[in-house]
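Hi F.,

I've been meaning to write this up properly since the lab meeting, where we talked about keeping a consistent format for the predictions we share between groups. The idea is simple: the sequence comes first, exactly as it goes in, then the structure tokens exactly as they come out, then a line or two of notes. No screenshots and no reformatting. I'm using this chain as the first example so we have something concrete to point to.
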Amino acid sequence: MATLCFQSPTKPISYFHPKSKPSPPLSTKVSLFRCRASVQTLVAVEPEPVFTSVKTFAPATVANLGPGFDFLGCAVDGLGDHVTLRVDPSVRAGEVLISEITGTTTKLTTNPLRNCAGIAAIATMKMLGIRSVGLSLDLHKGLPLGSGLGSSAASAAAAAVAVNEIFGRKLGKGELVLAGLESEAKVSGYHADNIAPAIMGGFVLIRSYEPLDLKPLRFPEDKELFFVLVSPEFEAPTKKMRAALPTEIPMVHHVWNSSQAAALVAAVLEGDAAMLGKALSSDKVVEPTRAPLIPGMEAVKKAALEGGAFGCTISGAGPTAVAVVDAAEKGEEVGERMVEAFMRGGNLKAVACVKKLDKIGARLVSSISR
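Output, unedited:
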């Protein structure tokens, strides 16, 4: 079986005490290259399509959530990408044709081997063992590129779910996450904190990558939680923002971030928006290196906290800033302050919206039966 090798998104990281000599360090080293087998066929018999056409939606996501770099993320309601997938006799059997890209950007390639949606669709077809049917795909981008809202993951999630639905929903969500990871690995790095919540909905903890182990975290139904998302007119490519990460961190910061991530998980399970916000605001490893690369980000965070938000940080790799509140009205006020701060501190125009948690994840919107 062919093997897919790609560079790890994480540089070697050493945890050290600030007052100690760096050699020999107290360290955890991560290999520069991770080599994984490509996706395998998971069904015994090639399924036939049950629909001639399906339309799917996948939501925007907030990755990292402050101290949860690469292992915590959540989905947000109302924003995202759509995919329309059709059985197409004019497309070679076993292949995908991307016929149209519309929405917030049209500069994406239609080459399915280099497009997020195309890569995920192909990976899902491989899992299903599809060799007798060709598919055509339309992608409607509701998310801008490089926004920090999981744009690539939304495209991948919508495409993976569309392929799964058109062939009768033979794969589970965990397998669809693996298909989406094929896309993420080639586009922005091997990390699941966008693609997992995009497919599964809600909050997701990635306990392990090898093997992949995903833990959904259920926020209580009777508790209120709102995300204030403020996106400036500024692009922060994920690869560039990952390149800015430190190669070593003080042990004291490692301990601090670990405790804040644990507090964040506890806050989600208890429905404690105040503690969630406080933990989300407390990253001492990633945010300090990325915030200076986003004009006005420090002023935006200060404005959010002064406006009554429980916490504020960078969404994913940025440049979108995310704040946490427990009331929509408060979110509107905080959003206005954050927009003003982006202009005042970074000379950037920005737009704000207040969204709830998306608890469903990528899903079927409509279908046409055979």
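Notes:
The first strand starts at residue 3 and ends at 7.
The mean pLDDT is 89.

If this format works for you, I'll send the rest the same way.

G.
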